[in-house]
Write a structure and sequence with these properties.
The complex is a heterodimer. Chain A is mostly helical. Helix content of chain A is 67%, strand content 2%. Chain A has three domains: 36 residues, no CATH class; 128 residues, no CATH class; 240 residues, MetI-like (MetI-like fold, Orthogonal Bundle).
């Protein structure tokens, strides 16, 4: 059996692992790679995702002037020229110009070129079969116009060929430079990180994030502990009422939960009405002031997190040998002393676990904030993860900056990876790794 | 235990702390069946009018189409997550695999890793794969993001099955596949059920992925529907109606939770982020 089966077991293992591996590679590993790669690009809605084309626009000419490209080249780029060649003749035919006239142009002016429309038109007027109407003459002239301005070229080669055609003896390297600058797709850059470092907003958002994580975490752990301990001591009817109540935010879908908070704190909402009755300031607490917006954000997230803490701490409490508590009762310890000297020491690991777990998820989560204050008023409650998400995928100006957003997300991804590895080291990693006991 | 501690201040504090939650959930229920005079806190009449959205699509738009979409979404998610986790979990728990340790630690890191930070990368993957704005894309993404958790849970359940059972099966000449299919799988049924329930509920609650990865598509899940209804800037905005829609949307989750409380508590306690 041992000699014949290893292959089959390996095949079975491979077959069993393949679907999981494909999905994880596609939607876990690949996104990480893409985030890291595109963090170093200037990709945005304007540049598109799959690549761009080459186009010289008026704006581009202006910025090239600013960058010191010589004036003669710029002028030549901006100009149109008129060249009588086969392509122009075809175009004129397609535009419905009189056939006799076209033949005449072809015979008499073949391969001549003119630098201005007026010179070319003057020349055309000398031909015997010229059209009588000026409009027709202009149409005929237009067919021979050649310009790179505002013409879209699919590849760099085409753009360079067109530039070469336009510019007579251009300065060294100018063609390459113009072609590069005319690219509308995304390019590689480290600007994202540089911009992040110098932007004053960055540090405000970092500050917001730290403030948010620390306060929410404190709320989660303290309230979670408080709930676990009080429900532990309460009679069972009361304790199960509070347990279920505090569990509700966790199982309520996030949209409804956010909407309920809106009802609670919005204009004409519950708190608003009470405050009005009591003569206290009544306004939209979710968006009306910075302090109230932060309070709402922390409570919205804190209530969900506290129930997570409560469940974990309650579990840990039940694992404490109850004889210890009985013995301390007999010795005359007060409840506070029991909590301080028996319960809390047992809670060290659960508290550490909840803290590290929540730090990670608070750092990266923005769903609740997005659905409630949406980072407002202004951007006072905007945290890093929300800002990254908005930059890349959800802003109202319409220009989504995938590159910059990816750069911001990459920082979170890196922090997330490091933290999750650190806390796996802390919590029972090796015992999970026992080897299979059947060798095939 | 003896009462050597003044209980009432603590209970008072607990009550005050719980009050916002209590009020929110109480009024969620009460307001859907009643009307309240403007400016007043307490309802003054019983009514079923807020539930008319169920039969009258002119109020908030047809609710049944998003409901069906949500059922399809959650059920597909459940099937994918359970079947892929059941196989991969077994392979990682019991089979001799190359790089097993590496894969296992990778999955643990992914499980701990905050997957929402990947949303931009996922968006790009879907763009390149041509799955952006499609239900299939959203299902695949959601399922994949749940997989590390599912595999981890299932591995735990397989780990708890005694080796002796498996060895006995192998001794009797069955292949590993047959042993898995006939002997092991029935042993981990509770795990499969918990994971299926969890995946279904998680899918039912999902808002962000469909909203971001399929923003302009022709399908809508209930969470998106509810968010549209409850937008304070919308013309149909009405606290009572969105509470009814919200309650309607959440009832399946609550029902499943009440029915399978014990099974789900394990998973909710240990597994998820929050």
């Amino acid at each position: 059996m041992r000699t014949s089966s290893p292959h089959r077991a390996n095949l079975l293992g491979l077959a069993f692992m393949t679907p999981a591996m494909v999905l994880l590679l596609g939607f876990f590993f690949l996104p990480v790679v893409l985030t890291s790669v595109f963090a170093f690009t200037n990709m945005s809605t304007a540049t598109g995702i799959s690549g761009g084309s080459y186009i010289v626009t008026g704006n581009l000419l202006r910025s090239l002037t600013d960058e010191g490209l010589d004036a003669k080249t710029i002028e030549a780029l901006g100009q149109s020229s008129y060249v009588i060649d086969q392509a122009g003749l075809e175009k004129a035919r397609a535009a419905g110009v009189d056939a006799k006239f076209i033949t005449e142009i072809g015979e008499r002016l073949k391969d001549r070129s003119f630098t201005s429309a007026s010179a070319f038109e003057r020349e055309l007027k000398t031909l015997p079969s010229r059209p009588t109407r000026v409009r027709d003459l202009k149409i005929a002239a237009g067919a021979f116009e050649q310009s790179v301005l505002n013409v879209r070229y699919a590849s760099r080669g085409e753009m360079e060929a067109a530039l070469l055609h336009m510019l007579e003896n251009p300065p060294q390297g100018a063609i390459e430079r113009i072609a590069t600058a005319s690219y509308t797709g995304w390019t590689w850059t480290t600007e994202n990180f540089k911009n992040l470092l110098v932007a004053p907003d960055t540090w405000r958002i970092v500050g917001n994030t730290v403030f948010y994580v620390v306060l929410t975490l404190a709320f989660n752990v303290l309230v979670g502990l408080f709930l676990a301990i009080t429900t532990f001591y309460l009679p069972s009817a009361g304790s199960s009422f509070f347990s279920v109540l505090w569990l509700l935010p966790r199982i309520t879908p996030v949209v409804l939960y956010a909407v309920m908070w809106k009802w609670f704190t919005w204009e004409d909402g519950f708190v608003f009405n009470i405050a009005q009755d009591l003569g206290l300031p009544a306004f939209n607490y979710m968006k009306g002031s910075v302090a109230s917006a932060w309070t709402v954000v922390i409570l919205v997230n804190g209530f969900v997190g506290a129930s997570f803490g409560m469940i974990l701490f309650s579990g840990a409490l039940k694992a404490i040998p109850v004889q210890q508590l009985w013995a301390s009762d007999v010795d005359g310890a007060s409840r506070w002393q029991q909590i301080r000297y028996i319960i809390l020491p047992h809670m060290r690991w659960p508290i550490l676990f909840v803290t590290s777990y929540q730090t990670l998820s608070l750092l990266s989560s923005y769903e609740q904030i997005w659905l409630t204050t949406n980072g407002g008023p202004g951007s006072t409650t905007t945290v890093w993860a929300l800002e990254a998400f908005k930059t890349a995928l959800n802003n109202y100006t319409g220009n989504l900056q995938y590159g910059l957003g990816a750069a911001m997300a990459l920082i979170l991804v890196a922090v997330g990876l490091v933290l999750s590895i650190v806390y796996l080291r802390l919590f029972r990693f090796d015992e999970m790794m026992s080897k299979p006991k059947i060798e095939f | 235990m003896t009462r050597n501690f003044a209980a009432w201040p603590i209970i008072l504090l607990l009550t005050v702390l719980s009050l916002p939650l209590f009020i929110m959930y109480l009024f969620l229920l009460v307001d859907t069946f009643s009307n309240t005079a403007p400016g007043s806190l307490l309802p003054n009449e019983f009514t079923l009018e807020h539930w008319r959205f169920l039969i009258d699509p002119t109020i908030t738009g047809d609710v049944w189409k998003p409901t069906l979409t949500t059922v399809i979404f959650s059920a597909s998610l459940m099937i994918i997550v359970v079947s892929v986790s059941a196989t991969a979990g077994y392979a990682l728990s019991r089979l001799a695999l190359p790089f097993r340790r590496f894969v296992l630690s990778g999955i643990m890191v992914m499980h701990a890793f905050p997957s929402v930070t990947l949303i931009i990368g996922v968006f790009l993957v879907l763009q390149f794969a041509g799955l952006y704005n499609s239900l299939t894309g959203v299902i695949l993404v959601k399922a994949s993001l749940m997989l590390p958790f599912g595999i981890w849970i299932m591995k735990g359940f397989y780990d708890a099955v005694p080796w002796e059972i498996e060895m006995a099966g192998v001794q009797d000449g069955a292949s590993r596949f047959t042993v898995w299919r006939r002997i092991i799988l029935p042993q981990v049924k509770p795990g499969l059920l918990s994971l299926a329930l969890f995946a279904f509920i998680d899918g039912w609650s999902e808002y962000m992925l469909p909203r971001i990865l399929a923003p302009s598509s022709d399908f809508e899940v209930l969470s998106m529907y509810l968010n549209t209804v409850s937008d304070p800037n919308s013309s149909t905005y009405n606290f009572n109606i969105f509470k009814s829609v919200g309650l309607f949307y959440t009832l399946p989750v609550l029902a499943l939770f009440v029915l399978f409380q014990n099974r789900l508590m394990n998973i909710f306690g240990g597994g998820t982020k929050g």
